[in-house]
Please model this.
Amino acid sequence: MQYTSQNTLLYVENLSVAYGDKTIIKDINIVEKDTVRDGSVTGQVIAVVGRSGTGKSTFFRALTGLVKPTTGKVLIADTTTDSIDDAKEVHEGDIGFVDQKYTLFRNKTVYEALQFALRNKEMSKEEKDKQILTYLKDWGLEKAKDQYPCELSGGQRQRTAIIEQIFCSGHYMVLDEPFSGLDVGNIQDVKNAFKLITESHEFNTIIYSTHDIELAVELADSIYVIGYPEIDGKKMPYGSIVKHIDMKALGIAWKEFGLEHLDIVKQIKEVMLQS
Model:
């Protein structure tokens, strides 16, 4: 499918994180640009896959500003300025982060939690109420708006947590294993959530990890495999990117899952087993 790559939205250079003398991840470099397709709003969907223990969670914590890198930097486009060419270093809160627990305020209803998420936005109360109601409708949460987290299903909690982060953080969203432990119906809900996010703004960028390689290949337009790299025949004790697959360049991004996708699944599994 025809597309163009325009301004850089995410730039990661020589990123490493060490705790004491133990290096967890090292030499991570990523450049992701705004994808533009005629006639459609196209956000970016980036999957990160790898075997357990290779540093995916540490990478996400560095990416979202929750952990300060030992070396390197993470830059995102500063979409608050007039020029999308402006970049800024990531700090905590710049990128939304939804963990596997879908952490929510126990003492706030869905509606109250979303009101709190918009507290720093320069909008009138009427504008905030309208935005909240629109999202609740689009995300199938209208009937749950006055419920507390303990009264919600796992899927409802997850959707509420995602909307909270959208309201707080703007265009960037990191989701740690969003499909883990979900049934078929809830997996479809997450897929629909991805679609809602990416079709609502060109700059919206989802970065997610998953152990389900087929879901990575089905949904992402860019896939990074994190594993233990091999240098001069010796396997390193830290995680790094061992393969990048650009589904756009291969011409299979945004297509129905088919044989070409299955071939990519096979390639990724082979790389993961070797690293």
